[in-house]
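Marked as duplicate of an earlier ticket. Keeping the data here for the record.
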Amino acid sequence: MLGLLLVLLVAAAVCVRLGIWQLDRAQVHGAQAEERRIAALVAAEPVPLEQVLAPQTSFTGGLVGRKVEVTGTYDPAGQLLVTGRVHDGAAGSLVLTPLTVTVDGEQAVLPVVRGWVAEGGTVQAAPTGTVRLVGYLQAGEAPAGTITDGHTEAISPAQLLTTWSGPIWTGYLVLVESSPAQTGELALLDVPSRAGAGLNLQNLAYAAQWWIFAGFALVVWWRTVRDEALDGSPHEVVAA
């Protein structure tokens, strides 16, 4: 019996170790896949925004990082600083400016992250007149705090709708190119990442399977110990 218990414990330990190894492979393979995805997004030609996403329509995960082009006019009066954002290890804010776009004869608002500025940095005004922008799409964030004094904590279309009016896009644009070009100290952001990116789901599933096997071995070990203890317990002798 002792030999069986030892085998079960060793099997559980091996399964746990294999699960950890598969988790490591999931991270490595996921990171490699994300690098390939980002390279493809950077190399892709932009498509017109209205072909992939209309105002007031749901933003799907597959649109994250999609390179698009759009033409419109900035509304400098609605510009906001999205506080508490770190870029290259430094604290600062994102510069969020509404872009008025004409879609099917009606005006809609697209939130545009024109870049990042360090704390205390100077934010130059957005280009005036008609601009052509190229950038990556990103999903809107959950509401946080309130929009006060030109500052906000989140890029939430639901919150922005009350400040900028609508209709509004449910995602936002991370700026890559602007014509005419913008000036100032703004640092452009990298390609947006998808939620859960960086993990390979197949390897992650293998890791879960190994941990389930480990749990099963421990359950068998526990039941074996329990049954052995019950079988060896003294029984009361009932007098005739």
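See parent ticket for discussion. Residues 2-37+201-231 form one domain.
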